[in-house]
Each structure stands twice: as structure tokens, then as C-alpha cells.
Amino acid sequence: MKILFILHYPPPVHGSSLVGGFIKESRLINESFDCRYINLGTSATVEEIGKNLAGKFLRYLKLIWQVKKAMLFFRPDICYLTISSKGAGFYKDALIVLFVRLFGIKRIFHFHNKGVRINQGKVFDNLLYRLIFKNADVILLSKYLYPDVQKYVPESRIHYCPNGIPDVQVESRKSKVESKSGEHFLAPPVAPQILFLSHLIESKGVFMLVEALNIIKERGLSFHCTMIGGEGDVTEDQMRKKIEKSGLIGYIDVAGKKYGEEKQKAFRRADIFVHPTFNDCLPLVLLEAMQNSLPIVSTP
């Protein structure tokens, strides 16, 4: 069976592109099917999201050409797509889907986000959703996300597949020190270490986090928060100005990007993981926090 995967995979690095990378590198998938992969992303970096429209338009034209060539010469039996659920990203992806539909190829959509229900009341969006979802199967991360597409897709064509991450060896989180006699005991308590690990994007709740930490400070509670992640629609300078304006210098550090062992060290140092996102659905970073035995404060 031939499968054309039109999905996000690195670069840039973000949750859905990491999942796309797992699929692209999967030996099981590649040995079971005849696969071709096309990167659906038009942004070269996370910082470029929402910017550099001219460059993205050229990449989009290239994307359309790649899809057309795959339809004509690869002739897939199934087309798997990770489309956006709303906004400009949805309109961009919808054109690709309609192009695939012209060839009568079975479509499977894998959603890593939500938002269909928010826009389904708009006349144009409603029409597009009906065209896009007609006779398509949909993969959702959880049964709790079904209401988002319920208007357009019967549950018989819904498949549930939660996100997953690779197993890694994590060190024990018990904070122990050794006395001169060689005995071990728990280290004395220090200010709780709070970790935020995501791109600096407003919809990830970065400003809300600062406001929440300000409330904790005003209540006289001690803490220290480390914010790790590359710039998105919020720059590090904007973040630091917000922290300074809130009187939280010394309470919050903006540490930039961390990968590999540096990221694992941050997880080991943390006591609490926080992710006040507005739009994410089962983000990988929460699974990483669970893997490191951290209590999580997030949004439903």
C-alpha cells in the first residue's frame, strides 16, 4: 500500500513536528508501507511563524508542486495529513486537501490542535469544513476532543491515538546529600523550582504565567521559575521587560533554548512543571514532565 504523508517534521522543532519526525523515522511504518513524505510547514523557524510572508509564499508554491508531482507519479492509495484546525493555517492546508481530493484519494487527518468548533459558525469556514471532512477519517489525541469535529465527522470515522515520546533513562529525583559519616539524608528544603519549557508564544500562556507568579510573590511565598524556550511571537527582550515591570527580577530567569542533556538537567532541577497553554492538546512536553516524575500545573 502506498501512503503519502503530508505532515510537519523538523525543522522547525515544535510538538507536532516532533511527532511527524517520529513517524518519518519509524522503521515499522516504513517497512510496512511504501511511503513518501512532504513537509507541510512553510516556516523555516519557530521565530518565522507569522512573519516573512514572501518567503513562506514561495515555499507554499513549492509545497503545492510537490503534492501535485506525488499525485501524478507516486499515485498513493492513502494521503495522511496533519492540518491546522482554524485560522490562516487552516486556509493554507485546506487548499492542499482540496487538491488531493480531486484525485479521489482516501484522506486521513491527524489533528494535533483544536479550534474547528470555534469557527464552524462562520459561513465560509463552515463550507470549507464540510468539503474537507467529507468521507475523510480523523485521528484525534483524545475522546475529549471529539466535540470539536462532531458536526462534520461521525464517530465511526474517528480514531483515537494519544501522543507518545521515546523512553529515556531518568535519574532519581530524591535530593540526597552525604554526611561525613557516609550516611545519606534528604537535603534541606529550598525555594521550589518551577520550570516552564516551551517556545515563547503568547498562546502558550507566557504572560499569564508571569501574572500568576506575581500573585504568589505578593502572598509572600518563595519560588524561582526558569523559562526555557526559543522566541516565537514573544521575544526574550519582551519577556524580560514584562518580568521587570511585574517586579519579578530574581524570581524568573529567561534561559533561552535548551536541548539534550541541558534540557534533562532542567527537568531534574525542577520541583514543579507549569504549562499554562490556551490551545495545546496533549503536548509532548507534559509527557516529558511526567516521565521525569514532576507534578504539573496546566490548563484543561
Written account of the structure:
With 300 residues, the protein is an alpha/beta fold. It folds into two domains: 2-160, Rossmann fold; 176-298, 3-Layer(aba) Sandwich (Rossmann fold). Helix content is 36%, strand content 19%. It has ten helices and 13 strands. The chain has helices spanning 15-24, 27-32, 53-74, 87-101, 116-119, 123-133, 206-218, 236-245, 260-269, 284-291, and strands at 2-7, 34-39, 78-81, 106-110, 137-140, 158-160, 176-178, 184-186, 193-197, 224-228, 252-256, 272-275, 296-298. Strands 2-1-3-4-5-6 form a six-stranded parallel beta sheet, sandwiched between helices. Strands 11-10-9-12-13 form a five-stranded parallel beta sheet, with helices on both faces. Strands 7-8 form a two-stranded antiparallel ribbon. A hairpin with a 5-residue loop joins strand 7 (176-178) and strand 8. Helix 3 packs parallel to helix 4. It is elongated. 28% of the residues are buried.
Q: Between the first and last Cα atoms, what is the distance in angstroms?
A: 38 Å
Q: Percent of residues in beta strands?
A: 15-25%
Give a short account of the largest sheet. 6 strands, parallel
CATH class of the largest domain: Alpha Beta
User: Over all CA atoms, what is the radius of gyration?
Assistant: 22 Å
Mean pLDDT: 91
What percentage of residues falls in helices of 4 or more residues?
A: 25-40%
Shape: elongated
Spatially, the strands of the biggest sheet line up as: 2-1-3-4-5-6
Low-pLDDT residue spans: none
What string, H for helix and E for strand, traces the elements in order?
A: EHHEHEHEHHEEEEEHEHEHEHE
Whole-number count of domains: 2
Number of helices: 10
State the CATH topology of the largest domain: Rossmann fold
Give the name of the CATH architecture of the largest domain: 3-Layer(aba) Sandwich
What's the total number of strands? 13
Structural class: alpha/beta
CATH-level-4 superfamily name of the largest domain = Glycogen Phosphorylase B
